[in-house]
Amino acid sequence: MEKDQIRKDTGIEEIASRIAQRSLVKSFPDDYIQDDVRKNLRIPVGSDILMFRQDEFIVVSIDSRRVYLRSNVEAKYVFYSAKRGQERIASPSDIDIEEVISSFESDLDATLSVINAECSGLTQKSQNDVKMLVSKLLGYTDIF
Q1: Percent helix, strand, coil in the chain (nearest 5)?
Q2: What is the value of pTM for the model shown?
Protein backbone atom coordinates (compact mmCIF):
# COMPACT_ATOMS: atom_id res chain seq x y z
CA MET A 1 0.00 0.00 0.00
CA GLU A 2 1.35 3.45 -0.93
CA LYS A 3 2.00 6.05 1.77
CA ASP A 4 -0.96 8.20 0.69
CA GLN A 5 -3.37 5.27 0.48
CA ILE A 6 -5.41 4.54 3.56
CA ARG A 7 -7.31 1.31 3.62
CA LYS A 8 -11.06 1.78 3.43
CA ASP A 9 -12.40 1.43 6.95
CA THR A 10 -15.51 3.39 7.85
CA GLY A 11 -14.59 3.29 11.54
CA ILE A 12 -11.24 4.94 10.80
CA GLU A 13 -12.88 7.47 8.48
CA GLU A 14 -15.51 8.36 11.11
CA ILE A 15 -12.89 8.84 13.82
CA ALA A 16 -10.72 10.98 11.54
CA SER A 17 -13.67 13.08 10.40
CA ARG A 18 -14.79 13.69 14.00
CA ILE A 19 -11.26 14.71 15.03
CA ALA A 20 -10.78 17.00 12.01
CA GLN A 21 -14.06 18.77 12.72
CA ARG A 22 -13.00 19.46 16.33
CA SER A 23 -9.43 20.42 15.43
CA LEU A 24 -8.19 23.95 16.00
CA VAL A 25 -5.63 23.59 13.17
CA LYS A 26 -6.20 26.22 10.50
CA SER A 27 -4.61 27.02 7.15
CA PHE A 28 -0.91 27.74 7.69
CA PRO A 29 0.42 30.38 7.55
CA ASP A 30 -2.44 32.62 6.39
CA ASP A 31 -4.88 31.97 9.25
CA TYR A 32 -2.10 32.45 11.81
CA ILE A 33 -0.91 35.83 10.54
CA GLN A 34 -2.72 38.79 12.07
CA ASP A 35 -1.86 41.45 9.52
CA ASP A 36 -2.53 41.55 5.81
CA VAL A 37 0.98 41.10 4.41
CA ARG A 38 2.28 40.59 0.91
CA LYS A 39 3.23 37.07 -0.10
CA ASN A 40 6.60 37.84 -1.61
CA LEU A 41 8.55 34.67 -0.81
CA ARG A 42 8.22 31.73 -3.19
CA ILE A 43 8.90 28.16 -2.04
CA PRO A 44 8.78 24.88 -3.99
CA VAL A 45 5.60 22.80 -3.92
CA GLY A 46 5.78 19.05 -3.45
CA SER A 47 4.77 16.08 -1.36
CA ASP A 48 8.07 14.68 -0.03
CA ILE A 49 8.91 17.31 2.59
CA LEU A 50 11.74 16.91 5.11
CA MET A 51 13.57 19.19 7.52
CA PHE A 52 17.12 18.48 8.71
CA ARG A 53 20.35 20.14 9.81
CA GLN A 54 23.30 20.38 7.43
CA ASP A 55 26.40 22.17 8.68
CA GLU A 56 25.33 25.62 9.89
CA PHE A 57 22.00 25.49 8.02
CA ILE A 58 18.60 23.98 8.58
CA VAL A 59 17.42 22.54 5.29
CA VAL A 60 13.83 22.11 4.18
CA SER A 61 13.80 19.64 1.30
CA ILE A 62 10.70 19.67 -0.89
CA ASP A 63 10.80 16.88 -3.47
CA SER A 64 14.62 17.11 -3.36
CA ARG A 65 14.62 20.89 -3.92
CA ARG A 66 16.34 22.45 -0.95
CA VAL A 67 15.72 25.67 0.93
CA TYR A 68 18.61 26.63 3.24
CA LEU A 69 17.75 28.60 6.37
CA ARG A 70 19.79 29.82 9.32
CA SER A 71 17.19 29.73 12.08
CA ASN A 72 15.05 26.88 13.35
CA VAL A 73 11.94 29.06 13.53
CA GLU A 74 12.30 30.17 9.88
CA ALA A 75 12.82 26.54 8.85
CA LYS A 76 9.64 25.52 10.67
CA TYR A 77 7.76 28.35 8.96
CA VAL A 78 8.84 27.13 5.51
CA PHE A 79 8.33 23.46 6.48
CA TYR A 80 4.76 23.94 7.73
CA SER A 81 3.93 26.17 4.75
CA ALA A 82 5.21 23.46 2.41
CA LYS A 83 3.17 20.81 4.24
CA ARG A 84 0.10 22.94 3.47
CA GLY A 85 1.09 23.18 -0.20
CA GLN A 86 1.72 26.93 -0.15
CA GLU A 87 3.75 28.33 -3.04
CA ARG A 88 3.87 31.98 -1.97
CA ILE A 89 4.23 33.03 1.65
CA ALA A 90 4.90 36.21 3.56
CA SER A 91 8.56 36.89 4.22
CA PRO A 92 9.45 35.84 7.78
CA SER A 93 10.84 39.33 8.39
CA ASP A 94 7.37 40.84 7.78
CA ILE A 95 5.57 38.92 10.55
CA ASP A 96 5.94 37.81 14.17
CA ILE A 97 7.18 34.41 13.09
CA GLU A 98 7.72 33.05 16.60
CA GLU A 99 4.10 33.78 17.55
CA VAL A 100 2.84 32.23 14.29
CA ILE A 101 4.84 29.02 14.87
CA SER A 102 3.92 28.84 18.55
CA SER A 103 0.20 29.22 17.86
CA PHE A 104 0.24 26.65 15.05
CA GLU A 105 2.24 24.11 17.07
CA SER A 106 -0.14 24.57 20.00
CA ASP A 107 -3.07 23.72 17.70
CA LEU A 108 -1.15 20.72 16.32
CA ASP A 109 -0.38 19.46 19.84
CA ALA A 110 -4.01 19.81 20.91
CA THR A 111 -5.19 17.87 17.86
CA LEU A 112 -2.53 15.20 18.37
CA SER A 113 -3.72 14.77 21.97
CA VAL A 114 -7.26 14.21 20.70
CA ILE A 115 -5.99 11.71 18.11
CA ASN A 116 -4.07 9.81 20.79
CA ALA A 117 -7.08 9.73 23.12
CA GLU A 118 -9.51 8.66 20.38
CA CYS A 119 -7.15 5.98 19.04
CA SER A 120 -5.84 4.50 22.28
CA GLY A 121 -7.49 1.12 21.65
CA LEU A 122 -6.51 0.89 17.98
CA THR A 123 -3.56 -0.89 16.40
CA GLN A 124 -0.50 1.20 15.48
CA LYS A 125 -1.41 0.83 11.79
CA SER A 126 -4.93 2.15 12.43
CA GLN A 127 -3.55 5.03 14.52
CA ASN A 128 -1.23 5.97 11.65
CA ASP A 129 -4.15 5.75 9.22
CA VAL A 130 -6.17 8.14 11.40
CA LYS A 131 -3.25 10.60 11.59
CA MET A 132 -2.79 10.51 7.81
CA LEU A 133 -6.50 10.97 7.16
CA VAL A 134 -6.86 13.82 9.68
CA SER A 135 -3.88 15.52 8.00
CA LYS A 136 -5.57 15.22 4.61
CA LEU A 137 -8.92 16.41 5.93
CA LEU A 138 -7.20 19.49 7.37
CA GLY A 139 -5.46 20.14 4.02
CA TYR A 140 -1.92 19.04 4.94
CA THR A 141 0.57 16.45 3.79
CA ASP A 142 1.32 14.14 6.73
CA ILE A 143 1.52 16.86 9.41
CA PHE A 144 1.25 14.57 12.49
Answers
A1: 45, 15, 40
A2: 0.86
